[in-house]
Sequence to fold (220 residues):
Amino acid sequence: MASKPRTVEEIFRDFRARRNAIIRALTHDVDEFYGLCDPGKDNLCLYGHPNGAWEVALPSEEVPPELPEPALGINFARDDLSRKDWLSLVAVHSDSWLLAVAFYLGTRLNHNERKRLFGLINALSTVFQVATGNKPIKEKLSMDSGSKCDVSIDGGLIKGEHIKIFCGSCGGKYNGDELWIGCDICEWWYHGRCVMINPAKADTLKHYKCPSCSLRRSRS
Fold:
C-alpha cells in the first residue's frame, strides 16, 4: 500500500486528483454515473481516487475506516429529485468529503502549513460550482523562474507555493519561456506545442478543452 500524503504539496495533489475524478463523474461521465446509482441497491457512495478514477461503491467495512467516508446512500434520493438537483446534492456532499480527507491527511501539519493547504484548495472552484456551471471566476496560473505558483483569484494572489507544474501531455516541467494553456474542464496544463495551440490561436480562445476531455465527451 502506498504511503499516505504527508506534505502540503502531496496532500494538495491528492485532493486535486480526487476532485477531478468526482468532477468527471458528475459532468463528462454523468450518464454512466447516474445509471450506477440505482435506488434499488444498497447504500452507495461516490469515491474519487488519487489516481484520478471515480467509483460508485459500497462504503468500507473497516471500522474505523482508513479515511473519512463520503456521503452514504447517494442513490436513494436519485428518483425523488430532479436530475439537476440530485447531482447538485451529490456535488455539495462531495466537496465536504474532499475537505474532510485533505484535513485528515493534514492532521500533523502545523498552523502555517494548514493555512497554505487551505489557500491552495480554496483557489480552486468547488465541485458544486463546476458541476452546476456556476464557476464565478476564471482560474489563472502564473509561474516564476523558481517554479513557484501564483494563483490569481478575483484579484487576489496566493504567492510562493512550491507546486511543480507538469504538462499533461508530455510530462515536462513548466517553462516560462513557452506557451502553456490550461484545460477548463480537467484543469490540467499543457505546452501549447503538445496540443497544437500557438499564441495566435490561444488569443482567440475563450475556453479550452484538452484532447483527452474532448475524446471523453465524444464517447459519452
